[in-house]
Amino acid sequence: MEVGFLGLGIMGKAMSMNLLKHGFKVTVWNRTLSKCDELVEHGASVCESPAEVIKKCKYTIAMLSDPCAALSVVFDKGGVLEQICEGKGYIDMSTVDAETSLKINEAITGKGGWFVEGPVSGSKKPAEDGQLIILAAGDKALFEESIPVFDVLGKRSFFLGQVGNGAKMKLIVNMIMGSMMNAFSEGLVLADKSGLSSDTLLDILDLGAMTNPMFKGKGPSMNKSSYPPAFPLKHQQKDMRLALALGDENAVSMPVAAAANEAFKKARSLGLGDLDFSAVIEAVKFSRE
Amino acid sequence: MEVGFLGLGIMGKAMSMNLLKHGFKVTVWNRTLSKCDELVEHGASVCESPAEVIKKCKYTIAMLSDPCAALSVVFDKGGVLEQICEGKGYIDMSTVDAETSLKINEAITGKGGWFVEGPVSGSKKPAEDGQLIILAAGDKALFEESIPVFDVLGKRSFFLGQVGNGAKMKLIVNMIMGSMMNAFSEGLVLADKSGLSSDTLLDILDLGAMTNPMFKGKGPSMNKSSYPPAFPLKHQQKDMRLALALGDENAVSMPVAAAANEAFKKARSLGLGDLDFSAVIEAVKFSRE
Amino acid sequence: MEVGFLGLGIMGKAMSMNLLKHGFKVTVWNRTLSKCDELVEHGASVCESPAEVIKKCKYTIAMLSDPCAALSVVFDKGGVLEQICEGKGYIDMSTVDAETSLKINEAITGKGGWFVEGPVSGSKKPAEDGQLIILAAGDKALFEESIPVFDVLGKRSFFLGQVGNGAKMKLIVNMIMGSMMNAFSEGLVLADKSGLSSDTLLDILDLGAMTNPMFKGKGPSMNKSSYPPAFPLKHQQKDMRLALALGDENAVSMPVAAAANEAFKKARSLGLGDLDFSAVIEAVKFSRE
Amino acid sequence: MEVGFLGLGIMGKAMSMNLLKHGFKVTVWNRTLSKCDELVEHGASVCESPAEVIKKCKYTIAMLSDPCAALSVVFDKGGVLEQICEGKGYIDMSTVDAETSLKINEAITGKGGWFVEGPVSGSKKPAEDGQLIILAAGDKALFEESIPVFDVLGKRSFFLGQVGNGAKMKLIVNMIMGSMMNAFSEGLVLADKSGLSSDTLLDILDLGAMTNPMFKGKGPSMNKSSYPPAFPLKHQQKDMRLALALGDENAVSMPVAAAANEAFKKARSLGLGDLDFSAVIEAVKFSRE
């Protein structure tokens, strides 16, 4: 199977390498073309524009850094739109908002092309190991034809219906994560201020029904006030805000998420926006006593 | 090793049976004495009052239903206080508030006895399997001498310092649990009202960094609006309230736990107090649209 | 002094009538021209398009129903932009968001015109009595030249700096109002459920330091579960959301406003969006006990 | 009419002086007897114990500093209980919790005496001016016989039913006050951080439907970060906590009051407990940006 691949950042590189390893023919493009070299050594072909990749391949995957880059690769000169047509599929796995996804979908399908959005859950390591979780939505037929690709990239892929649903599902997952992180932070601080050991609390949580990789992974560094940014707090807060907006649209009252969002905002006002989102514990801790 | 055991409810029976199986000599007492019969068949001795058990055994464990029963067994006629003295240890594993624990501690140590509180995390099944988590506090020497007992009853035991700390730690664990349950509930409802499948959300959560036995165990029944009471909502709300009171004492502001507590209160006002605490999702769901 | 007046809805009619009474020469326009008749009887002139009004008058006031109408009157064929030029002032007193206001400002000033936004606080009665509160922002010179007009229309006018500040100030005022309404609602319900009279609570509040026209005006009907829509709940909730978004931009954590916003959302989900915003008390009241 | 008066602190002195001025015969007692001198100069008699006052007078009023003093005056040697009997009325106007009030009521009525609790709203100035608001509850007949006294001390007195209701009503009033203060604080900070003048916001609020003496009185000093303690923040937070507990008893979910309570707790953790409760604005303001 032959696939195009647009965008060779940390994620895109790991993903396209995986495809090569599993016997796919891969044609890559990246804004900075030199980043393609390593892939070429492993057997990839290169094109000089997104349009050329589309022209050459029946299926093209994109993994771009943000909504702005995702739009640019489609709409700019030499972009996807110039060559997309009936019989060709475009799978955008970048993390973008539902609105951006809908705009790209409209343009692609307007030219007769097929479109699937497929944001992923998981970062560098799962990308390298082919262990991503893929939240796909859009054209069902294209999704099904893409299953061999998704099977290589992820441990599981979901088809969620119409375009926008992938983005929405990701927001909801991140909203639960943000509220859980606050629940966890309040517990750790309460233990500490009540004269108990917050390290022991970690051990106890780890033995019970709430044990989860996030508490296990981040708890020990939180107890050391260390927050190396895996997922920056300001992005977590933005996702909380967008999830609350989704609740607003659908008249779902979510007081716990709203309280968590305000805690993340307080953390931002304390200058912690670029640290890991677990730094929200600093907003709970802060006192002068 | 010989131990006394007061209280043969669901938990106490499983625990004393476990001790017998592991070769301990066990002397039991229960308010309704007939409940001792099964234990006797497995080799236990019986006494007719808590005082007699204390007189006979160096170490006595209690596992009673509530603070009221815990106090009665110590202070009433024929109670623990009549025989406790220097050289004897009393280990109360009932779930009681810190105040009750402190009152018992004062009385026991006033007579020269040793006291450890040891509330447990885990219910019937872990009790039978010797897989409880024991949150012990009080007399360090008694705790250490009790380790052979705790090793049979639990998969792990913690020594948390002064009397009251066991009760406090349990409240904190339950507070995190209550906030997490609200985070989870809001996410499930938001998915549903946004046109996504809340069953798919469960699958996605299960594959990621937040996967935990509680979401896995309760999610499917929550999506079916079924809440068989494992831990009644009214008790969860009481623990949230007490944890918030602990925060009040120590000037820890916990806006997420406070919002979760109000959601549990709303659920109580909807008549859901006797269902499982996961029924809080009904307070999120409720609408007329 | 001669002024143009665009828009003769409930507010615009009362305001332009007031100007006539105070000796201003007024030239009016309304989308449905027949609505101008009553004003003409009292001495107003009429034009057939916004552009004609602008051409005729040095100063023109607009009072339109929503952002859409405000934009249309400026940008459509026969609109303000066709005739606005250096030496002419345009004062938009409609309630619009900051973004709409900025867009109009840019267009007007791009043609050399002067622009002031001036949303008002107060509804029909204060408009008739010339008792509005005017939250003006934009061109300072135009504001100062407009003072004779504002003195007739309002009891007080404020100049708040750059365009957008009028809209923002109105949001903040409404945010405080929404949180206060929730505080009030919770108190009334708590009194009732605690076996106290919520009517007596109104009397007590009225005698103390918190007495205010809103509690006095709305309390008695709230106690009768009557919510005739003076300010619809869905608009109040929208303003809470926008004020929270303003807080988000400026990293101001506002947990009480966030909780109030979620209560308004719950009220919307209960089908109360078109009632007065005081109907949020129904979300507090709701229970099955 | 002859009345006894126990407790001559700031409030008690002003109140008993008022009674003398209005022609009542007053017999006073105070723990530190020398504090009675000024009253004696104005015509009061003195007794050496609460019991003696009760013996001498048909009606006795108490105005004591806290629940502890209120209990001591009744139950200690030389206390009210020694002389209270059928035909005598005891009116405790101290601010105490419902539980204390119920305990006193039980003791007084157990001896055949009549009891009314009558906490007041208002501080030194209203006490001097006879402008207190009296929240009475208990024995209806005694309340009615006391009206001439209440008419001198207050501008309005309410009879709220059974003992405890006076205390509860006061908590509810203070809960609304605490939430309103947070709503106000969030608005002032948001104005400031959004580049608007928080002093102008005060002016605007003062002209609209939310104008109230509290905003007017405290706003200007809050904008100057000045919080001279009229009602200490730690007491306001305690009243929020007790009002939330009352909500808990009655299954009333109050998310806005809960969020306000957490803000007051955060303020306490910032060391602001002894300042005026308006200092909660500092918890909103606090940031490092």
Automatic annotation (TrEMBL), chains A, B, C, D:
Gene3D superfamilies: N-(1-d-carboxylethyl)-l-norvaline Dehydrogenase, domain 2, NAD(P)-binding Rossmann-like Domain. GO terms for cellular component: cytosol. It catalyses: glycolate + NADP(+) = glyoxylate + NADPH + H(+); 4-hydroxybutanoate + NADP(+) = succinate semialdehyde + NADPH + H(+). It holds the Pfam family NAD_binding_11. Keywords: NAD, NADP, Oxidoreductase, Stress response. GO terms for biological process: response to oxidative stress. InterPro entries: 3-OH-isobutyrate_DH-rel_CS (IPR002204), 6-PGluconate_DH-like_C_sf (IPR008927), 6PGD_dom2 (IPR013328), 6PGDH_NADP-bd (IPR006115), HIBADH-like_NADP-bd (IPR029154), HIBADH-related (IPR015815), HIBADH-related_NP60_sf (IPR051265), NAD(P)-bd_dom_sf (IPR036291). It comes from the Eukaryota. Residues 2-161 form the 6-phosphogluconate dehydrogenase NADP-binding domain. Residues 164-283 form the 3-hydroxyisobutyrate dehydrogenase-like NAD-binding domain. The active site is at K170. GO terms for molecular function: 3-hydroxybutyrate dehydrogenase activity; glyoxylate reductase (NADPH) activity; NAD binding; NADP binding. Belongs to the HIBADH-related family. NP60 subfamily. PANTHER family: GLYOXYLATE_SUCCINIC SEMIALDEHYDE REDUCTASE 1, OXIDOREDUCTASE GLYR1-RELATED. Catalyzes the NADPH-dependent reduction of glyoxylate to glycolate as well as succinic semialdehyde (SSA) to gamma-hydroxybutyrate in vitro. May function in redox homeostasis and play a role in oxidative stress tolerance by detoxifying glyoxylate and SSA generated in glycolate metabolism and GABA metabolism, respectively. This is 6-phosphogluconate dehydrogenase NAD-binding domain-containing protein. The lineage of its organism: Eukaryota, Viridiplantae, Streptophyta, Embryophyta, Tracheophyta.
